[in-house]
Each structure stands twice: as C-alpha cells, then as structure tokens.
Amino acid sequence: MKLILLGPPGAGKGTQAARIAERLSVPVVSTGEILRAAIKDETELGALAKGYLDAGELVPDDIIIGIMRGRLQQKDCEGGFILDGVPRTLEQAAALEQMGVDIDRVIDLEVDDAEIVSRLSGRRVCPSCKAIYHIESEPPAVADICDVCGAALEIREDDKPETILERLRVYHDQTEPLRSYYKKAGKLRSIDGTGDINDVTRLALAALEG
Ligand code: AMP
After folding, report:
1. Which residues, including other chains, have CB under 8 Å from residue 142's CB and lie 6 or more apart?
2. Distance in Å, CA 210 to ligand 1 centroid
3. What is residue 210's predicted lDDT score, i.e. its pLDDT?
C-alpha cells in the first residue's frame, strides 16, 4: 500500500502515520523528520533547510524531491510506504508521478484553523524517541518528561506562535490544492481529524478499504 497523509500542520499526520504503519507493516517517510535530523546532525542539508523550517516556510521543491527520490529507492519501501508531510506542493506530486510511483490512497485529515492553533501551541515532542504530547489533551505523566524514554520534552522551533500562523498560510496557499488534485484522480478520502486519536485511526483504516 502506497499512502499519502495530507492535512494542515498539526492535523495528526505523524501520529496517525505511525499507527497505520504499524498496522500495515510499512515504513513512514516523513520529510519533516529527515530535515530535522539533518539540522540536528549539522549536515549540509541541515544548514540549507534550517532557515526555512524556523520560519515556517517550505523547503524548495528540488531539495524535497531529491530527498523523496533517495528515500523511496531504499529497500524497505519496496512493499509500500506512508508519506507523511510530502508531497506538499503540486510540483512534488508531479515529481512522484514522474518517478513512476502510483499512489493507492490519500487520507486527508480535516481539522480547522482554530483547532490547529490550539494543538500546535500546546504540542511537546520527545527529541529522543519522537513521542508527541499535548499539555492539555495528552499530557505526559510527569510534566515535560517523556513517558516512553524519560527524555526532557521540547517545543518544536516551528511551533512558536508567530510561526504557526505562517505555516497555516503556507498550507492553504501551497498544499491545499493537492486535495482537488487527488480528488480528481479518485484517490482522496477526507476524514474528520478532530475526534479521539483512536477514532481517527479507525476512520483512516476504514478509508483504506474500498
Ligand atoms: P512537518 O514535520 O511535516 O510539519 O515539516 C516541518 C517543516 O519541514 C515544514 O514546515 C517545512 O519547512 C519543511 N518540510 C517538510 N516537508 C516538506 C515538504 N514536503 N516540502 C517542503 N518543505 C517541507
């Protein structure tokens, strides 16, 4: 199964991708994670990408397309994969097609802007095992400590209030057109992303059938 998770920043793509991946036994390909790892490791790619991430802007298409091409050629992607946060522009979607990648389904997580702002401003992430929390709706047992691995939780640089609004603007402007692109192709399944995490997973798995 070759799957894309679409939706605004903070819609729950990362959380749902991990759950669906476990169920389907396929890897998650997250360009955001690849870029954050490159920044942390201070690689050339990281140096190039950092300014864009910190500002909430998209990294240029040629860079993302190169990352995507390299990652999808790896052996673990042979039996399918879940794309989380990519494609994010029509150019990236066209590049996927040119690579001969035939996407089976696009799950579109619908969450409105007010809910996104509330979610992202309360989001805390574990820099070590990547677990995701929310200070109100999904708090860790001990404040600011990861339940899974004990690391100190962090606020993502791009979850700062001023950057959240810019990321939403960029989503509506550049990524939302992908909904009609994949709808026309008959691949889009929009689901309500605002319910309980388990309900959203159930809806997403149901959307993979039929
Ligand atoms: P994410 O973790 O998916 O929210 O991505 C975090 C940031 O990484 C985005 O705000 C962009 O700056 C960058 N990024 C991730 N994926 C892409 C992509 N497909 N195209 C352009 N920029 C991306």
Report:
1. none
2. 30
3. 66
Local confidence band at 188 (pLDDT 50, 70, 90 cut-offs):
very high
b/e burial code for range 24-50 (CB count within 10 A of at least 16 → b): bebbbbbbbebbbebbeeeeebbeebb
Query: Quick one: what percent of the chain has pLDDT higher than 70?
Result: 100
Let me know: does 189 contact 107? Beta carbons within 8 Å: yes
- The three-state DSSP-derived secondary structure of 1-40 is CEEEEECCCCCCHHHHHHHHHHHHCCCEEEHHHHHHHHHH
- Closest protein CA for atom 11 of ligand 1: 58
pLDDT score recorded for residue 209: 86
Q: CB under 8 Å to 66, separation ≥6 — which residues?
A: none
Q: Residue 7 region, left (φ>0) first, then alpha (ψ -120 to 50), else beta?
A: left
Give the closest residue (by CA) to ligand 1 atom 19: 86
Is this structure's pTM higher than 0.85?
yes
